[in-house]
Each structure stands twice: as structure tokens, then as C-alpha cells.
Amino acid sequence: TDTSSVDAPDFIQAWNWNFGDPASGPLNTSTLQNPQHSYTATGSYNVQLIATSNNGCRDTVTQVLFINGSFPVADFNIQNPTTLCANDSVSIVEASTVFPGTITKVEIYWDNVNQPAVFDTDNSPFTGKVYKHLYPNFQAPLTRTFTIRYRAYSGGVCVNDKLQDITVNAAPLVQFNTMPDVCFDAAAFSLSPYISFGAVPGTGTYTGPGVTTAGIFTPSSVAPGGTYMIQYLHTSTAAGCSDSATQTITVIDTASARFVVSNLACERSPVNFNSTSSSIPPTAGTITGWQWNFGDPASGAANTSTLQNPSHLFTGWGTYNVSLVVTTSNGCRSTAFNMPVVVNPIPRPNFSFPVTSCLPSANVQFTNLSTIPDGSQATFSYLWNFDDPGSGPLNTSTGSAPSHIYNAVGPYNVNLQVTSGVGCIRDTTIILNTIHPQPTGAFTVDKPDLCVGESFQFADNSDPADGTTTQWNWTMGDGNVRTTPSFTYTYGSAGTYNVSLYITNNFGCRSTTFTQQVTVNPYPVVDAGPDLFILEDGSDTLQPIITAINPTYLWTPNQYFLSSNTIERPIVKGVEDIWYTLTVTGRGGCVSSDRVFIKVLKGPEIPNIFSPNGDGLHDRWEIKYLDTYPGGTVEIFNRYGQKIFSSVGYGKPWDGTVNGKPVPVGTYYYIVNPKNGRSIMTGYVDVIR
User: Fold this and answer.
1) Which CATH topology does 525-601 take?
2) How far is residue 385's CA from residue 329's CA, in Å, rounded to a whole number?
């Protein structure tokens, strides 16, 4: 249907439809204002309309159209339609059809006449799906008719209804009233007075101990003293609708013998019995007699008793079938009440400990050896008392195999109490007297310190206490160990070493560890310093380099010192060339030495004339002592200020030549710089032939 519009005075004069169904060929389009189109398959289609006004203006709209297929045919099947009961759900099975397409939803109006607005909805139906509904239970009238409206959908708009009447039958409503207790010797009786079922015609059946299907209960046909469950089932005649109920009935003895064991039954202890729980109906008289049999014939005459609350010491552990029969004041005798009484075995506590333990803190590990005849050791609980009250809360333990630390040799009375899984208790005490005192480690060394390369003498001085020494464990402090009582030891390097010793005696007891320091002193590292050049009558300080601990110094010979010769850096005077020896004594008396040479530089003696004529006399300009000045320089200039000779050091005196040629006879200017603290010297020298 076209709903297009345009503002007046214009009007729409053309419509171009596309139904989104190319498979329909030329029928897929239309120019009618309100066309029709038949689709051949379900699904979504994009329908397009182009509207054109009288002025040629156009507008386009597209909408999605979902085609569901044909109208559905609503249908369902009723399960067991002739036997529908008011106390059971009515079941119907989905059977609707549609082609093409699918059933997309169903609505079920279970009581369309009386509740037309109440329905169930299923948005995921499928063929064969079962829907259930429980109508209100009723007993009258015997039938009721309900109209079911079943509505099936294909898509959102295609719908079909099916209406069908069903007949629901009244269901019995059974009530089983409480029944009083009956005596065991009572006569048989009917249980029907305790039943009601809502007046729905049918048949009833009883089931349970001592009752017939017709409801006759015979007390003597069941065991006295029990409570029994009776069921009544009523089935209607019309449709087989049924309902049931149960109730209990208790059959009591004329007198009911009962007893309890008033204490834990353990081997070697009397077991107390109490029969006050025995009972008798108020109208049956009173209990006047008791006949006990303890099921323990080995106990002889003690195996029976006529006391109301006797005790019995059983001859061993095990299970005994104890019985009690009570009699009443009117001569009635109860049935025998039997109870198996388990007399539990008692534990056999036992334990062991190591043959030796050592102080200090002797950790004694106890090994549990407890047993019980029935093999139930896994259920044991334990309580140990280590006879060491000074240990406070640690004096006890509940472990199966505990340990305890003792700080004295003892002896100790160690007690173990074992409780079986059922609570039977027994204990034992064993004397612990295998704790030994701790040895004391000690040793001597012949000297506290020495120099590298020298040896110490170590000797064991330990006290093995109550045993004899079997092992020595020395730690030398340098990564090495020794295992002999005494020995000589040389360390490979200087240092302070913590030497320790502990011993082990023949009981395996380890001593305290004794530690003592020894010191290996290094030899001093001595460098007397660089050789010195000192001007004659000058002075200088010796500059040794020393590495030593607590050093003392001695310079020899003791000559030309301007300060003490026992200090590290004394001052010496330049008198003559001399060798000094520095002797350094370090910690431990370790001695090293080194030498240094003192060169005394005397003043250069410069001649003012020489004759380099080859006659072997004064052929060179010899400057006495200048060669002893390291780095001294000589420069010679002619009258024109030209440098004709220079040298650093004066190991080879000038021979009066320049470039191998003799210089002219004349006077030459010189500059001599001895350095080493001496001033520059200048002057003239004459060269003659």
C-alpha cells in the first residue's frame, strides 16, 4: 500500500515498485500505486518504491518484508486421552504443520472456557514436543471437561487455532490416619477405620509387614518391639486414577526388655549393664524379674545374673551376645533382647630409643612399638611424658613417634600412654639412661704468630668426657682440614686464620668447637727509593716505599744523616758517594731490606783555555765533574753569537771543531747548565794551537 505524500499543490503521478524477487521475472516490478505481488518462497525481501511528483521530483524508500509461507494448521495429540487423572499432568504432543515455512510459536489455553486469558507460550516448538499441565485435583464430580485452545503461528501474523475438549477423571485423595501402638499378643484387626479416600469409587490394597491386602493386621506375625510402615493404595474404577499414603504402627512387647552398656567395654575391666530402659505398657503390670546371660560361658557361674543392673568381667576381648529377658508382675515374659557387646582389646604400649644420645640438646627419637591384638594400631592416640618438667609444655607429646631434647644425662622415667580407637587406655614406663655428656674441644699451638714460610705446631687438648676420642676435625681457616690429634702446619700466605677443632668420642658425641686465631705475618715489602743525586754539601730526604705492619726502620751505615737513621725518611748530607741499606722489621719480627745509592755532585771545574793541536795535551775542553750531572747542558758560541757546539750531558768533551773542522784560534763564549740544583755557569774559553 502506497503511503507516499508531497506538499500541495504538487501531486504524485508515478510509482515504480521493485519487489526484491528477481526470480519472478517481469512480475518483479510494477507502476501501479497499490500493486500486489505473489512470492513463491519464504524469507526476507527488500521492497523498493520510487515516487515521482508532477514536477519530476523523486524519492526512494526501501523496506524489508518477511514472507512466512502459508497459514499453519494447528494440531496436537493427547497422550492417554481416556485415562486423564486430576492428580496427574495432562500431556499433549505438538503436531501442527505449515508449507512452506515453519511453526514459529504456539500458545496453549489449557482451560479456554473458564480462563480464556491464561495460556502458555513456546517460541521454539517442534513436531513431537510434549507439553504438560496439571489441573486442580478434585474428587467430585467424577469427571470434568476442559476445552483446550491450541494456537499455532507461522511467522508473526499467520496463525491458526485448534479447540478440543478433554475429560479429566476425579482422582482419589487418600488419607491414612495415625494408628495407636499395639501389643504383640493383641488379636488381628482391620486398618480400614484409619483410611479415607474422597468417595471416588474404586478398589483399595494394603501392603506392609503383618497386613493382608484387605487390611487385616496381625501383631504376632511381626517381630515385637518394632515399628512398621503400612501403605494403602486406592485405584479408581473409571480411569485407574490412584493415590496412596503410608503410616506406621508400633508393636510393643508385653514387656519390652532393653539395656545399655553404661561404660566403654575394655579388656580386663568390668562392664556395667543398665536395664532401666526396659519398659512395659501401663496396663500390663510392672517388671519384677531380670534374667541375664552374658554369652561368656568360660566365666562359669558368673555368666548369668538376676540383678537389675549387673556388671561382668569378661574373660577376654571379643564380641559377646548378651541377652536379657524381663518378667512382669502378671507373669508375662518378654522376648529376649539380644545385643552384641564388643569387649575391646587394650593396647600393648611399648617403645624404644637410640642406644646413645649426646648432649648438649640430646635429641632423643622415640620409636613406637605399641601393638593391639585386633591390629587397630592405626587408630591409636598417644600421650608421652618425657620426665623432663624443666622443658615446660614440651615435656609431653601426642605424636606417635616423637622426639625430645634433653639437656642433662638423666636418667629419665619416660611414660607412654596409648588410647585405642575406641578409647581403651594402657601405659608403660621405660627408663632412659643412654644420654652422654658433651666432650669439650680444645687444642694448643706453639706460638700465636710467625712469618710466612714458618710452621705452627698444633696439638689436641680436648676432653672426651665419658668416652674416648675417635675422630679429630680440624679446620685450618684456609680451606684445608686435618684429622690427626697433632701436626705441624705451614700456611701458604700471610693472614689471620681462625683454626677450629671439634672431636667425636666413641659414643658418637661431638664436642664443643674450640677456635683460636693464629697470625701469619707477611715480610715487609721494601723499596729504598730511587738513587739520589745530591750537590756536594747539599742535602736531600730519602724516599723509600714501604708495605709493612707495625714497621721499624734502620738505615746503615749511620753516616752523613742530618736526622735519625731509625725513621722512615731521614735527611742525608752530600759528602761522598755512598750506598745506604734500609732494613725494615714488621709485625712478628719479619725482616726485609733494600739499598739506595747516593751520588754526590761536586762543583764543575771549567778551564778557560785548551789547545786542540793534536799533541795529546789539553786537546779537549775537559770540564771536571760535569759528566756526573744527569741532563746537564753545554753550549758554545763564536764571537758572532753563533752556536758552534752543544750537548746534553758531557760524556764526550768538545774537541775544538765544528762539523769536523778546527775552529779558528780565538775566544769563545760558553753557557754551562749543570742542572740538578746547581746554577748556570757562563764565561769564555780560549782556543790556542
Assistant:
1) Immunoglobulin-like (2.60.40)
2) 56
